[in-house]
Every structure is written in C-alpha cells, then in structure tokens.
Write a structure and sequence with these properties.
Helices cover about 50% and strands about 15% of the residues. By secondary structure, it is of the alpha+beta class. Strand 1 (about 65-70) and strand 2 form a beta hairpin. The relative contact order is 0.12.
Length: about 400
C-alpha cells in the first residue's frame, strides 16, 4: 500500500477533529482561490492582496490566534496548521496572513491602547484594513538594537524620521506599526499610512516571494499625536516578542512548502520513466524520497510539540521557537532543492511549483531571523555566553 509522506507515521492521528477541519477549510480555499492563479501571480510579480485579505478575513484566518476584536481565538496548533496549508500554496500568501495577524495585529493587540485596538483590529481581522510591521532597516537587518529611525517629542506629538526596508504589505497598508529609537529607548507607533511625510515604495525585481507585496518605507518628519504610540511597548523586547510570534507560524508554514514539493516529486517520480522504468524504481531516487519524508515528519512533530506546549502554557520561550524556525526552514529548503533534482529540467519550469517554493524559501530562510541568528540564540541558551557581537 502506498502512503503519503505524513501518513508514514500516522501523524494525522495526533490532530483533533477541529484541527483537521481547519486544515480542510484552508486547503479548500487555497485550492479554489490560490493554486489556479499563483504561478501567474509569481510570473507577474503581483498578487491580489486586498481581495485575498477579504476572503481570508471572512474565514477568520487573520489574527485567528488572537482573542476579541473580531478575532477567532483559535488554538496555536490550529493557527499553525492554517499556516502550513497556506504556504503549501505559496509562501507569499502565508506571509500576507502572518504579517497581518502575527506582526501588525499582534503588536496592536499586545501593546496598544484600547482605543487603538478598537480602531484597527476589527477591520484588520475582517481583511478590510491591511497592516504592516516596520522594524527592518536598510542598514540594520539582524541588528535592530542599532536602528537608525528616530522618534523625538515635540510638544504633545512625536516626530518620526527614518526608513524601513523589506516590509511585507507596506505598499498597500492602511496602518504601519513603526519602531523607532527615542531618548527613553525603543518605542512603537500605530501610524496611519496617509499621515503626511509617510511614503511606501514597492520593491521590484524580486526573485523570491513574487506573489507578495514588499516595500520600503520612508518617514520624513512624520508627526503623530501621542495617542498613536503603543503605550505598553517599552524597549526592544516588544518588537522582538512580535517576531517570536511570527516565527511560530513559519515553523509550520515551511512544512507546507516542503510537503507540496515532496508530493509533486513523488507523483513525478512514479509517472516519469527513464531507462525503461519509473524514476521512483531507482534506488537513488527512493533514498532521496525516504530522507525527505523522514525530515518532513520530524519537522511536523517538532512543530506540533511547540504548538501543544504553547496551548498548554500560553507561551513559548524564544529559543524554543528558534529551534523550530532553524530546523524546519533549513530542512524545507533542502527538500525543495532535492525535489528539483528529481524533476530534472522540468524542476525549473513554472508549470510545477517546486522552483517557486525553493525560491520563496530563500526569503523564509532569511526573514524573522536568519539561520545564523537562530543558531546564536540557541548557542547563547546552551552556554550562557552572548556571541552576537563576537
């Protein structure tokens, strides 16, 4: 009997009926709305982000793990499974949901005032309003502690100056969560993007995440009232906690891209013949398939463990999420590349999703902390020594 990769260890039995229902729902919407068009979106370098946001909002996928303000209040595992199914269609589509819910919405939900939550979160949960998260800068990617963006007080207002780079959803956003340095340390703001002095520019010529809107943000004497400051965000720990929140979804999402590549490679290897037999009948091909299935299942068990721990304890330690992000993205990109070899020349064709996933995973490998950053996070926890500056 032939089994699917994740059926090898009967991992489906570890999920609840509700979690399987979430999987079926998200798989259905990606089958109907994303997969038929995503190759063309990737080719064009543009996706209908606002239309997708509205559809995902109707399904309760935006900020689905948050409570109140129109959010679904789903479990961590259910959210993770949704991310896995979204990224099985395309990493850029999952990024839309992750940035909206786990970065922009979470920052406001966790650190915002009640007025800010009421103003932004219901519309964002419905997909009517788009958010972005402005932390990364042109000269400060992995080192946000030295960000150049500044916030200074001027009477009852704040004035923001600086720039952000590689910001998902920025060209379309209605609200931008902006992090800046002030005399008292790192502070955060929920800034309407129609504020004078705020501008966002689409980043073109990407070779990865082409079905995602990515931009740079310019802040030129952007004056905002004190009411726009996130009152509970004090210090760098606030934006870093948002990154930890988003990384959890990536732990699951990367598995979706890997699973999709492996499923395509399995189908191709069993139907494509060379030297008078199916590719899957050769020992070298079977060895590749076995190793990839093994890593996929190990990654799933790791993601599920982290999800169950979060649902039980309410939180995960940053180094625990780093373990998941480091392992699962690293293994996912290896799987995508290996699957490309099984497809041979067809592996680079847009008619198959494998090269698209491999290219997308290059970005996933970098954002929300590079592999090297996560190695250092884990190493610091193991040794008690900070090697970030060494």
């Amino acid at each position: 009997m032939v089994v699917a990769p994740l059926d090898l260890l009967d991992l489906d039995s570890l999920l609840t009926d509700e979690e399987r229902d979430v999987r079926a729902l998200v798989r259905r919407v990606t089958d109907d709305r994303v997969r038929p068009s995503v190759a063309q979106w990737y080719e064009d370098g543009a996706a209908p982000v606002r239309e997708l946001a509205l559809e995902f909002g109707k399904l309760g996928l935006l900020g689905m793990h948050l409570e109140g303000y129109g959010c679904a209040g789903a479990s961590a595992v259910a959210y993770g499974i949704a991310c896995m199914e979204l990224e099985a269609a395309d990493s850029g589509v999952r990024s839309l949901v992750s940035v909206q819910g786990s970065l922009a919405m979470y920052a406001i939900w966790r650190y915002g005032s009640e007025e800010q939550k009421q103003r932004w979160l219901p519309g964002m949960a419905a997909g009517e309003l788009i958010g972005c998260f402005g932390l990364t800068e042109p000269d400060h990617g992995s080192d946000p502690a030295n960000m150049s963006t500044r916030a200074r007080r001027d009477g009852d207002d704040w004035v923001l100056n600086g720039g952000k780079m590689w910001i998902t959803n920025a060209p379309l956003a209605d609200v931008a969560v902006i992090w800046a340095r002030a005399d008292e340390g790192v502070v955060g703001f929920a800034v309407p993007t129609d504020t004078p002095g705020f501008s966002a520019r689409e980043i073109k010529h990407k070779m990865s995440l082409r079905a995602s809107s990515t931009g740079s943000i310019s802040l030129d004497d952007v004056r905002v009232p004190a009411a726009f400051q996130l009152p509970s965000a004090a210090g760098l720990k606030a934006p870093l906690s948002c990154l930890t929140e988003a990384r959890f979804g990536i732990v699951w999402g990367a598995l979706g891209a890997a699973r999709e590549c492996l499923a395509v490679a399995l189908d191709y290897a069993t139907t494509r013949s060379q030297f008078g037999r199916p590719l899957a009948g050769f020992q070298l091909t079977q060895a590749k398939l076995a190793d990839m299935a093994l890593e996929l299942q190990k990654g799933f068990l790791l993601a599920l463990h982290l999800g169950r721990r979060r649902d039980e304890t309410g939180a995960l330690r940053p180094e625990q999420v780093s373990v998941g992000k480091l392992n699962n993205v690293r293994e996912a990109i290896k799987i995508a590349r290996q699957c490309r070899t099984i497809l041979g020349g067809n592996g680079i064709s847009g008619e198959y999703p494998v090269m698209r996933h491999a290219n997308n995973l290059e970005s996933v490998l970098t954002y929300e902390g590079t592999s090297e950053i996560h190695q250092l996070v884990i190493g610091q926890k193991l040794t008690g020594l900070d090697a970030f500056a060494g």
